[in-house]
Design brief:
about 350 residues, alpha/beta, 2 domains, two-stranded antiparallel sheet, globular
């Protein structure tokens, strides 16, 4: 995968927390190998690896302990680099070190909190450009994008980061906007999408947009209109295959019972959801509910044979857009049946 242009930036103020050393050139640091910024986490990983390889617990502990001082030294070096502002990010603010450091939290959400089940992971190309197109839910925070990205990193034999187009409003939120950028979120625009795909990135879009995240709980899993098919135009202009992605589970994490127009105007949000826990429980109400998830990556749709000029054919664009939407809707219904209860 060709990496986006990266630059070294300096910060007046260090980013909070600690972060792991950069990935090796030409690839990403494997999930269970190499040093971690948290020596304790690295220690536990090495113990687990030792026991999985057939060693007894005492030997596994001893082997992990021998590696701990080296991990600690490398962790301190990583902290020093970030305090000095010496770390890399691309033109949109994606910080691979930050994303790697946050993986234990994402893995907890993925494996323990939402117990995500994945199918069709090999439909995601291991290299080169591709456009992931999914159904959208989860209220104002793109948890579905994070879980799709985590699924690719956790389940794919050749993991890679996915870059997601995010509505511009999200980048006006304090703290949240910084996290979205550092995790790889990019302001939604055809220019950004085309540029990323021309750099052979994996790019994700949610054509439902705010209509998908803002629908009431009674309308869950009924896909909204896909607009004018802008994502199809982007795929045609770049020759990127379209991979439909069906997500089940995200509709239950913040069951939207209504919304407050006054609070939406006050915060500048497109809508302000009212859920069974928010704003009744204050900040605790922002904790997503632990529903069970299923994510299915469907068969890719190859549009390279049409050529870039086909992006101006409105009939073709609409037909492909509806084909993608119908595929996702059908797979959503199938996975709802396979999942059963959301909260077993």
């Amino acid at each position: 995968m060709s990496a986006p242009p990266r630059r070294t930036v300096e910060r007046e103020r260090p980013a909070p927390g600690t972060f792991p050393p950069p990935a090796a050139a030409g690839g990403h640091r494997p999930r269970d190998e190499g040093p971690s910024l948290w020596p304790a986490i690295s220690f536990l990983r090495r113990v687990r690896q030792g026991m999985e390889s057939g060693r007894d617990p005492v030997s596994a502990l001893a082997g992990a302990g021998l590696a701990l001082p080296s991990d600690a030294r490398e962790s301190l070096d990583a902290v020093r680099r970030r305090l000095a502002g010496l770390y890399s990010e691309d033109d949109w603010g994606f910080d691979e070190e930050f994303a790697e450091a946050a993986m234990p939290f994402m893995e907890f959400l993925y494996g323990r909190w939402w117990r995500v089940h994945v199918e069709g992971i090999l439909n995601v190309p291991s290299h080169g450009r591709a456009l992931l197109v999914g159904n959208h839910a989860g209220s104002l925070f793109p948890w579905d994008a994070f879980m799709i990205g985590t699924a690719i990193l956790e389940e794919h034999p050749l993991p890679r980061f996915a870059r997601y187009l995010v509505v511009n409003w999200a980048f006006e939120l304090p703290y949240v906007s910084l996290a979205i950028r550092k995790f790889g979120g990019v302001p939604a625009s055809p220019y950004n999408a085309i540029r990323l795909l021309e750099e052979d990135e994996l790019v994700g879009v949610f054509p439902e947009g705010v209509k998908g995240t803002g629908k009431d709980f009674k309308d869950r899993y009924r896909l909204q209109r896909f607009g004018r098919g802008g994502f199809v135009e982007i795929a045609l202009r770049t020759g990127a295959p379209i991979v439909p992605v069906a997500v089940v589970g995200s509709e239950e994490i913040y069951p939207k019972l209504g919304e407050s127009g006054a609070l939406a105007r006050l915060t500048g949000a497109p809508f302000f959801p009212i859920t069974p826990t928010f704003p009744l429980l204050g900040p605790l109400g922002a904790v997503p509910l632990p529903s069970r998830w299923r994510i299915e990556f469907c068969d890719p749709i190859d549009v390279s044979g049409y050529g870039p000029a086909a992006a101006d054919d409105r009939t073709l664009v609409f037909e492909i857009s509806e084909r993608v939407r119908d595929t996702i809707q059908q797979k959503v219904y199938e996975n709802l049946v396979k999942r059963g209860s959301a909260f077993p």
